[in-house]
Every structure is written in structure tokens, then in C-alpha cells.
Amino acid sequence: MKRSQGRRPRTYLALGVGMAAAYAAVKYEFGALTLGLAAVYLALVLRRLILNPATGFRLGQTRIDWFTERGTESAALTDLVGVTISRSPEGRTVCTLTLRGGRAITLSGVEDLDPKRLIREFMRRGIPTEAC
């Protein structure tokens, strides 16, 4: 449903721009400051590409997958006891899954999603959903 990751076309475009800037700084002798700034920019872009941070979740017909710092976790929809969808004090959407056994998981990457749409998607799959 919603996934964001570091490896996207814009990131590769940023890598190309950084490489072109570093090349131009060396070829046309723009100076150490320009080359240093280009190198720092390249390092930041490469770090994002290498780490490839992912946030969000995928809601299928039988399971839900969500992305964490350690990778991907998932659960069958039959293991969901309920879902709570609310707004944070800053006005961002918060979605919390409650699994059998009492484990609660707050999904990342839902902050800008429409709460009504999330409620519809979960309810369409027969999952008890509460809006706060």
C-alpha cells in the first residue's frame, strides 16, 4: 500500500549530479573547497543508497508486511486482533496494529496517509478498526 525507500530514480539522479560536480571540480580546477563540498554531497547520497532505508507497509488480501530498521516483518491478517487509527498532536496519521498475544506495532510511513482510506482498507479485509 505505502512504501518509501532510498533507492529511487531521484536518488540516482542526485548521484549523477554529485559525480558530475566532482569531475568538473577536478577537471576545471575549481579548488579544494568545491571538490570537498562535492565529495561530502557524494558521501551523503552514497550512504542513502547503501543503507536503503525503507518505511511503510504492504497490505495484501491475506497478510500485512511492514518495514523496520532490521528488515521486513509480517503477519497474517487472521493474527490481527484490531487496528487503531488516530491523529498525532501534529496532525499526522498514526496506525497501530494489535496482534494476538497483545503485541502492538505502530506502522511507519503512514504519517501522510488519509485516515479514512486506511480505515476502509482494513475494514474491507474484515479487520476490526477503531478511529480515535
Question: Can you give keywords for this protein?
Answer:
4-stranded mixed beta sheet, 33% strand, 4-stranded antiparallel beta sheet, 8 strands, 132 residues, alpha+beta, 37% helix
Account of the 3D structure:
With 132 residues, the protein is of the alpha+beta class. Helix content is 37%, strand content 33%. The protein has helices spanning 9-27, 32-51, 115-124; strands at 2-5, 54-59, 63-68, 71-76, 80-87, 93-99, 104-106, 129-131. A 4-stranded antiparallel sheet has the order 1-2-3-4, with no helix packed on it. α1 (9-27) runs antiparallel to α2 (32-51). The longest helix has 20 residues, at 32-51. It is elongated. It starts with a strand and ends with a strand. The mean pLDDT is 92. Keywords: Membrane, Transmembrane, Transmembrane helix. This is PH domain-containing protein. The chain crosses the membrane at residues 32-50. It comes from Defluviimonas salinarum.
Tell me the total number of β-strands.
Answer: 8
Side-by-side strand order of the widest sheet: 1-2-3-4
Separation of termini?
22 Å
Low-confidence runs of at least 5 consecutive residues? none
- Tell me the structural class: alpha+beta
Question: In DSSP terms, counting alpha (H) and pi (I) runs of 4 or more, how many helices?
Answer: 3
What does the main sheet amount to?
4 strands, antiparallel
> Hey, roughly how much beta strand do the residues contain?
25-35%
The shape is elongated
Kindly provide the radius of gyration, computed on alpha-carbon positions and rounded to a whole number of angstroms. Answer: 21 Å
| Order of helix and strand elements from N to C terminus | EHHEEEEEEHE
Fraction in helix: 25-40%
Q: Averaged pLDDT, please?
A: 92
Keywords: Membrane, Transmembrane, Transmembrane helix
Protein name: PH domain-containing protein
Transmembrane segments: 32-50
